[in-house]
Write a sequence for this structure.
């Protein structure tokens, strides 16, 4: 791919010179405008094809690579593009400043997001953006909106119970009552940034679908929307019940404890329909465990956390 800045001078020795600085800024602006309009993928690393982000390195000719690819190419001793002996790639601060100056509107601007993230942060912003539109999972319903608007739609149009839990940490723990049918939990969780970067916060809308089966109550869990590609969303469901003998002054008899850990799958808002409960992992609470509570909503403890894929 022809790089639009190929002939641009990235020599760091000229940074302190005042002469020509205005011209350099104009040239940088022209390059940025060209890239935004014509060839945004030229801002990607030529080796891994991911968006370039600081620190960025260059060979003596000026071909740039990201830091992880620089480390992988170090043993070869030559540039991946031109084959020039590198010895060691040099830090390209000018390219880093140029990338930080190139801003893109959020793809969810039509849904209310006014952010203008730098190109190298566009994907991480997209994954965490609270304005991302999701489709209502109701049968025959075509409503699409952000998480906040969608929750109002769930309660106002469908009468589905919704719970919101915001946590500053990486795990959300709460106890909720689950009725038959759709139940929703909106969890705001922190996770480590890519490549050891700063922690990011994401919103995760969980659909907990409760169905009645011959043996008891079954709960399946789906993520409405998307999760970061390098992350795994885990959900632990727990049901417990203590039994007492009413004829002997509430003497403790025993207790039931059921627990399952679920690797939550995504249901993308553009998909044609929800998978059936039989196609999902199910957390089953038998009727004999529920006892007299089997005709009512069940109290479940839930823990949601985000993990890096191994």
């Amino acid at each position: 791919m022809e790089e639009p800045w190929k002939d641009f001078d990235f020599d760091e020795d000229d940074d302190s010179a005042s002469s020509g600085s205005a011209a350099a800024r104009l040239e940088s602006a022209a390059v940025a405008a060209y890239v935004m309009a014509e060839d945004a993928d030229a801002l990607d690393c030529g080796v891994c094809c991911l968006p370039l982000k600081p620190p960025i390195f260059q060979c003596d000719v000026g071909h740039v690579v990201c830091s992880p690819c620089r480390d992988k190419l170090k043993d070869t001793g030559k540039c991946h593009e031109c084959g020039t002996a590198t010895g060691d790639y040099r830090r390209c601060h000018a390219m880093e400043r140029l990338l930080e100056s190139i801003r893109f509107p959020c793809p969810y601007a039509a849904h209310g997001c006014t952010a203008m993230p730098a190109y190298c942060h566009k994907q991480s912003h997209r994954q965490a953006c609270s304005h991302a539109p999701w489709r209502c999972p109701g049968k025959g319903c075509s409503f699409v909106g952000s998480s906040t608007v969608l929750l109002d739609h769930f309660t106002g149009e469908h009468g589905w119970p919704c719970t919101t839990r915001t946590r500053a940490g990486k795990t959300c723990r709460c106890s909720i009552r689950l009725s038959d049918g759709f139940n929703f939990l909106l969890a705001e969780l922190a996770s480590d940034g890519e490549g050891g970067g700063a922690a990011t916060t994401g919103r995760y809308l969980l659909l907990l679908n409760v169905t009645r089966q011959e043996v008891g109550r079954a709960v399946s869990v789906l993520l409405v929307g998307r999760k970061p590609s390098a992350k795994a969303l885990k959900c632990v469901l727990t049901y417990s019940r203590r039994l007492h003998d009413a004829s002997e002054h509430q003497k403790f008899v025993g207790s039931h404890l059921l627990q399952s850990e679920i690797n939550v799958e995504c249901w993308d808002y553009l998909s044609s329909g929800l998978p059936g409960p039989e196609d999902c992992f199910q957390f089953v609470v038998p009727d004999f465990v529920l006892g007299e509570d089997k005709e009512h909503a069940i109290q479940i403890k839930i823990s949601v956390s985000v993990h890096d894929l191994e």
User: Anything to note?
Assistant: Residues 133-308 form one domain. The chain has two domains: 12-102, 133-308. The chain has a mean pLDDT of 77.
